[in-house]
Every structure is written in structure tokens, then in C-alpha cells.
Amino acid sequence: MKKIAALVLFVAFVSALRGQTNILCTNPLAEQVMLGNYDPAQYAADVVITDPAIISSGIASGVSPDSLKSYIIRLSQFGTRNTGSDTLSNTSGYGAARRWTVQQFQQFSAEHEDRLIVSYLQFDQDICGIGRHANVLAILPGTDTVNPGIILIEGHMDSRCAVLCDVNCTAEGVEDNASGTALVLELARVMSPYTFANTLVFCITTGEEQGLLGAEAMAQYIQNKGITLRAVLNNDVIGGVICGQTSSPPSCPGLNDVDSTSVRLFSALSFNSPHKQLARYIKLQYKENILPTAAVPMNVRIMAPEDRTGRGGDHIPFREKGFTAMRFTAANEHGDASNGPGYTDRQHTSSDVLGVDTDGDGSVDSFFVQFNYLARNAVINGNAAAMIARAIPRPADFTAFRTGTQLTVSITDPAALGQYRVALRTATNDWDTVFTLAGNTGVFPCNPTGAVIVSVAGVDAQGIESLFGNEKLATNVSATGTPLDESSAPIRLFQNRPNPFDEATWISFWVNEVPKYQKAWVQISDLQGKEIARLPVVLQQGMNETLYTHGYGVYGYFTYSLIIDGQIVDSRQMVFAN
Fold first, then answer.
1. What are phi and psi of 333, to 5 degrees?
2. pLDDT (tens digit, 9 = 90+) per residue, 302-359?
3. Quick one: 375 and 513 in the same domain?
4. Same domain, yes or no, for 497 and 418?
5. Rounded Cα gap, residues 250 and 102, in angstroms
């Protein structure tokens, strides 16, 4: 017991040493705007543009690959942007890069009626021998101070080589993560002329490579101040298109594979997860507002896990504090950052640079970041943030009953919007169908068997939906409204929900009544009965889920079974064909 107590005290001591203190917004006005304590008229545009169609079109046409290229080239010129690098030089190191981003935000503000409020989010913490650090914020005030809220678009600017605090290694960090920084800068420029109900916060974080520390400070600050944070769109490794020899699963196909038309959306959990709902919403807004006129269509892939295997990003500290958050990442990554013997990929090395000089004239002419691809990803971000920032209220509640092939949905909505979207999901991480409903009750076609998962959103007068609320499992009833046996079964094992481009699948089961038991697990077996994996589970009333990561390039039929105290409760088959 004494050893355990000593260990607890040691961990607490180390945590105290690592803890962030003196977290503050250096511009008091920026803080008041995020809190909703301001006069929106002071930031009103001369020409107020709120029409969602005009804004979507303006973002799509306004994001410039050339602008993104210019930002990335400039960021690469600071040498290393390691969090512990020089903060005094005007030409190199993190400090110079940080001041340059502030100047960019200030320039964008000057070009757009001084509507952007620029600030540092400062915090004290020992990172690589430096005690004080700062994120950079540019804030576009919204018009609604009665129900204020912010949407955060962010990317980290710090870079690194193999050794965490190696400030001498030239870590230009072009893909990781000048690409995300450039995206945030460009959206601040492009979105500044428009007017939104909610406030947009364009945030460039530091200390990501040392443990998501800048994002942790921002999340802690927002929580401490009681700021209403509606959504976090994190952008990290978002502009490269070339697959390395290694990459963290869910991975890309193999060395030098090129993908410039897919983007991955990572978020936590599955059933009733606000993070997955945010990812689905982002994809829906792209499909409905951008895709119909897109010159190059994008495949927006909703990934099963919260992040790549063994990796993490700046969305995670926000999720840990109860905020809705997700991550954008390019389809292909050049490496898994393992940096071990034989590692030849660019990520987390001095080779993460602009590109190569193929004709020997001294200038890079083949770039590792594809700027048109990065621009398309920026448009997906900006369009989604613009729609969320309309601050459309969500319905308070709903019911969903399935009778055969018909689903009846009834919505409770104190705001009386009168129009709604109803989303159905069955076998994937994405919605199968999104219906439009006029009035509070509607009947829709659905599968007669298997789980039907339902969620709803409100729709405003311009036809834009709110974020979708909680998911519910449709209840099976008879024609007389009596619950069927399937609905009242003690435990039901559902079909797994894979993503065709994923390396993981969610296995779920519904528990009406938790039995007395010692151990429970989900067993994965091949068709010969050989156990492939055993996933321990804790039974809880309602929906239970576990994520099985099966790896890239797995093919064939497998069986999964829910086992309680050695007895098989139920089994199903699943097919992998990715």
C-alpha cells in the first residue's frame, strides 16, 4: 500500500509540474466576444451577407490554391517551428512564425472592415525548456448575443523531427502541419466578409507535437470561462496526397499511392455520439451545398475511430472536456512518425519539406502538398462551419416506431420551426438516407429487420438544417402499437457497421436488462472457428459498442459472437472486402 501511495503522490507531483497555469486571452475584447458580451453592431459589415447559398458559393470560389501555396512557402522559410525553438528571432523559429500569423490575421481584418479581432491565448507550461506559450486567435463576431456560441476552426503550427524537443533539426513541417495552418489562415480571409449568428474562431495552436498542449490550454480556457463551444473542426496533415511506406492505420494502400479526391473525418465513438453526428453533418453539407457544382468531387470518408491507431490530434482535448469535436486528415499520409530503423518516410523528419527540384534550376517544382486538394478541403471546412454558425435550434425530442417497412417519427419542437430533417442509419458509419419532413410527424420507408438508428434536425427558412441531435434506436411495434418480442429481447446483437474505406468496424448490441455476470466479451473467429481477437466488454443498459480494428487489406468472412461467462449469447457474420 505504501508503494501505491508513493506512486500516486509522484504522479500527482509530475502532473502539477506539467499543468498549465495563467491561461489568458491577451486581448480582453476577444474574450468578451467569445462570451457574448458585446454590441454586434460594432462589427456589422457595410453589406450584410447572410444568405447560405451566397456564402457557400463565395467560400467555394474564394478559397485560393495560390494563397494557400504562398502561406505554406512562407511557413517553410522559418526553418523549424518546434515549440521549443527560438522565440526572439525575426526570421526563424516558432516565435517568428507566430508573429507572422498574427500579421496575416491583422491584414485580413484590415481588408474586411476590421471585423476580425486578433489575440493570443497565452499559457504558462514548461515545454521543451520554454515556460510561456501562446495560440493565435482571429475572431469573427456573430450577431446573436442572446444565445451566443462559437465554432472553432483550428490547426497546429508547431513541427518536429524524431526527437521531441530537437530545436536544431530543420523541421519545416509542410504536411504536418503547415497545411492545416494555411487552411485556417485562408478561411479567416475568405469568411471575414460574411455575417453569421454565431462567432467563428480561427485558432492556430502550439505544442501539439508535445502532447496536444495548445489545444488543451484552449479547451481548458473555454471550459473555465463558460464559453459555449458548438463545434471544433481540427485540421492536421490535410494537404498531402502521396502515401508513404508506413502510415498509421487506418492507412493508405501503399508506397506512392496518390489520392487527391478523398478526405478522412475522424471522430469519437459511434451510436449517439455528437462527434460522429458532427462528421456526418459536415459530409451532408458538402453533398448538398458544394458537390452539385464542384469541378472535382470529393469523397468525404467518415472513419470509425477517433484518430489513427496510436495517434492523436487537437480535437481530443476538447472531446475529453465534453465539447463536440472532430478531425480532418488527408486520405494519404507519408509515414507513421515511428522514426525507427529503416524509416524512410517524411512525417516527423527534416524531409517534410515543400517538394523537390526536378529540373535542377534551384526552385521546387514538384510539391508534396497539392494546393488544389488543400483548397477543396478548406471549402468543406468553411461550408460546414458557415452552416453550423447559423445557430438553428435543434428539436427538443422525438419518437421513432417501426412497423414492418414503415417508420413513424414524431418531433417535439418548442421553436416550432415546422420543417425538419430525419436521418436513418443502418449498416455504416454514415446516414443511409436523410428525409425532409414538413410538420411534426411523418412516415418513411425503412428496412423491416436489423437496427434502424434515427436522428433529427431542425430546418430554417432558407432550408439549412441544424446540427442533428441524439440518435435513437427505432422501436419495433405491431400494427396495434404493441412492442414486438425482438424489441423486448434481453440482449440483441446487431450487424457490424464497417466503412468500405476503413480498417475498423463497430460491433454493437442492445441490452434491455443487464444480467448478473462475471465476464463478457466479443469474440472474432474465422469460419474454421479459430479465435482471431477477444474484445472485453462491460454490459450496460441500452446500446453497447466496441471497436474492432481489423487492419487494412483484410478480406473474407468472419464470425463475431457476444459471450457472457463462457456462453454464446448471439453470433453474426461479417465480410471484409477493403
1. -115, 145
2. 999 999 989 999 999 999 999 999 999 999 999 999 999 999 999 999 999 999 999 9
3. no
4. no
5. 35
Strand order in the sheet with 472-473: 433-438, 419-425, 453-458, 472-473
The answer to whether residues 337 and 415 belong to one domain is no
Edge-to-edge strand order for the sheet containing 397-403? Answer: 441-445, 406-412, 397-403, 475-476
Element (H, E) at 529: none
> Which of 353, 388, 423 corresponds to the end of one domain?
388
Of the listed ranges 7-21, 36-50, 161-175, 343-357, the least confidently predicted one is 7-21
- Distance separating alpha carbons of residues 411 and 184, to the nearest angstrom: 37
How are beta strands 419-425 and 453-458 bridged, if at all? antiparallel
In tens, the pLDDT along 417-426 reads 999 999 999 9
162 within a domain of the structure (yes/no): yes
Are 164 and 287 in the same domain? yes
Domain that holds residue 430: 397-476
Tens-place pLDDT, residues 14-36: 333 458 999 999 999 999 999 99
If asked whether residues 113 and 150 sit together in one domain, one would say: yes
User: In three state form, how does the secondary structure of 187-214 look?
Assistant: HHHHHCCCCCCCEEEEEEECCCCCCCHH
In 3D space, the residue among 177, 178, 159, 169 whose CA is nearest the CA of residue 74 turns out to be 178
Pairing mode of beta strands 491-493, 497-498? unpaired
Question: Is 211 part of any domain?
Answer: yes
